[in-house]
Amino acid sequence: MSAPLLELRGLHFGFADRAVLRGADFALHPGERVALTGRNGAGKTSLLHLLVGLRRPSAGQVLAFGEPRRVEADFVPVRARVGLLFQDSDDQLFCPTVLEDVAFGPLNLGRSREQARADAEATLAALGLTGFGERVTHRLSAGEKRLVALATVLAMRPQVLLLDEPTNGLDEAIEAHLLAHLEGLDLAMVIVSHDRRLLVRLATRAVALHEGKLAPATLHSHEHTHRHAHLHLHGPGVDGEAAHTGAAPLHADHHAGE
Ligand SMILES: Nc1ncnc2c1ncn2[C@@H]1O[C@H](COP(=O)(O)OP(=O)(O)OP(=O)(O)O)[C@@H](O)[C@H]1O
């Protein structure tokens, strides 16, 4: 297998009163779309932030594109190539209008104003947001903000996407559109989501964060006798509810023509 794009080796991290990661190992290879699962508070968001240097470990190593990364100067070029969709869209959006927000990243990467505007408009169009450019960002609905936040990341044309709850607040139709779009991108991804249907569709493999460590998990779906599609998530540290009950009955589109 080719060299990892991103890697964590024996990572330890915590907040003042709480250990979050206790020797986590992880590698993301080109072409992989990895589902990162774990209970609320397990440390999934912290792990994504550590990968791009928004948090620093107390021990262990972060590597990106083959190089160890320790200080802010090491992470600046990483963040130009690794796009992070924050869990909260309001952490991502800070300009008065949608177009300014989406063009901000490309401008920051040194692209011309014309190029940044063209990139922003093309990205908005690809996400079904044609004509949103002049909208006032803080007046958007939660779902619209989610898509615009994703547009700000994609407009930078990253090599890796880190998605923290990408479908939060989206209705089914928009979620389906977003999923199809993400599936069509030739990008390595780490996806944090409590939406099992999304993970089953999008992820090429899964890892579960439990007690500060990562272990392989499996995601798969199968048909039950009553012909509703159920999605199962197995592995250490996955949401207890899903592991014990066989997951929520999601009435997926392919439920047997009822
Ligand atoms: N700024 C902070 N200061 C102190 N503790 C924090 C801070 N941010 C997160 N934590 C704690 O660290 C732990 C890991 O949080 P994190 O957000 O990484 O978990 P998560 O797996 O993403 O959770 P969720 O699924 O609920 O989003 C949690 O117990 C959380 O309460």
TrEMBL record:
Transmembrane segments: none annotated. Keywords: ATP-binding, Nucleotide-binding, Transport. GO terms for molecular function: ATP binding. Residues 6-236 form the ABC transporter domain. It holds the Pfam family ABC_tran. It comes from the Bacteria. The keyword Cell membrane does not apply. The keyword ATP-binding applies. Belongs to the ABC transporter superfamily. This is Cobalt ABC transporter ATP-binding protein. The lineage of its organism: Bacteria, Pseudomonadati, Pseudomonadota, Gammaproteobacteria, Chromatiales.
